[in-house]
Design goal:
The chain is α/β, with parallel strands linked by helices. It has helices spanning 21-37, 62-66, 79-88, 146-149, 178-185, 212-227, 281-285, 290-293, 301-304; strands spanning 4-11, 42-44, 91-102, 105-115, 121-126, 159-162, 165-171, 191-196, 231-236, 239-241, 244-246, 251-253, 259-262, 269-276. Strand 3 and strand 4 form a beta hairpin. The chain is globular and about 55 Å long.
Length: 313
């Protein structure tokens, strides 16, 4: 028997503007109770799990923008999550929008935290790869204003010893970037937790077939898991929220890249799997033995250049 942790991925259906934090937390608590009933030691909640995904619309009133952000964690409305986790002996990953004061100025981040079974916060991550745009683009079906409302994360991609293994975090668009997984892979990550809000229809570029959003989501999770021999547990906010349909597809992926659990709906739903943290050891020792096979002398462009520079004609 390896190092086992039963993980629950807690997908959320839409959260409307009229819904308050208490409504969202009540739904998270119900999913946490379901996870506990199924023997989970860890439950993964989505990105921005306490509010609608407000970057889909434009705001210029600072007080209105701030109303979607948490000034402390836990705060009065989120403390019940920590208390219930401690009483049940279950840990969790939670995505939320963070308002912080660093260097004497107000800063906004798209953030996730890792909480152990005793209710103790052991890790914080801030989303690095912000998609979309910062300017108002009226007339679109929806907007993606993460670059307006958030700063890029400033904590890098750390990992933590938790739940008997080595655990990392990322958020939504981060999962599309190979560097996200590899930086954590180089720290021996054994399980990556992520939350996401992903629209089914892309705006601002060529039209895609309806199935492609789900295809790319699963492709990213499976490739990142396999190429770094790590579990990936991904939780969606799904369904039609303020006019934007977001995919579900919450899933748990093995270090071999296989999906072992996947949500079937676009509403509140829990899927779970028994995850052996030793499962990736063979791949880490053979195919993806980084110390033996990586050739870092040839990878310089990855950190020296952000954009594409083709060779001269």
């Amino acid at each position: 028997m390896g190092r086992m942790v039963t993980v629950g991925v807690a997908q959320l259906g839409p959260i409307e503007r009229r819904h308050g934090r208490r409504d969202a937390v009540a739904r998270l608590l119900a999913l946490m109770e379901s996870a506990h009933a199924r023997g989970c030691g860890l439950v993964v909640f989505p990105e921005a799990a306490l509010t609608p995904f407000f970057p889909h619309w434009y705001m210029d009133d600072e007080a209105e923008i701030d109303s979607y952000f948490e000034r402390e964690m836990p705060g009065p409305e989120t403390r019940p999550l920590f208390e219930r986790a401690r009483s049940l002996g279950i840990g969790f990953y939670l995505g939320y929008c963070e308002l912080d004061r660093e260097g004497g100025r107000r800063r906004r981040f798209n953030t996730s935290i890792l909480v152990e079974r005793d209710g103790r916060m052991v890790g914080k991550y801030r989303k690095v790869h912000l998609p979309g745009h910062a300017d108002h683009r009226p007339g679109r079906a929806y907007q993606n204003l993460e670059k307006r409302y958030f700063e890029p994360g400033n904590l890098g991609f750390p990992v933590w010893r938790a739940f008997g293994g080595v655990v990392g975090m990322c958020i939504c668009n981060d999962r599309r970037w190979a560097e996200t997984y590899r930086v954590m892979g180089l720290q021996g990550v054994e399980m990556i937790l992520l939350g996401y809000n992903t629209p089914a229809v892309r705006v601002g570029g060529p039209a895609e077939a309806p199935h492609m959003a789900m295809f790319h989501h699963l492709l990213s999770c499976q490739a990142g898991a396999y190429q770094n021999a790590t579990w990936v547990a991904a939780a969606a906010k799904a369904g039609t929220e303020e006019g934007v349909y977001q995919i579900g597809g919450s899933c748990i992926v093995t270090p071999a890249g296989e999906i072992v659990a996947r949500a079937l709906t676009d509403g509140d739903e829990l899927v779970a799997a028994d995850c052996d943290l030793d499962m990736g050891r063979n791949l880490k020792d053979t195919t993806f033995n980084f110390a033996l096979h990586r050739r870092v002398e040839h990878y310089g462009l990855i950190t020296q250049r952000a954009g594409v520079v083709p060779p001269e004609a």
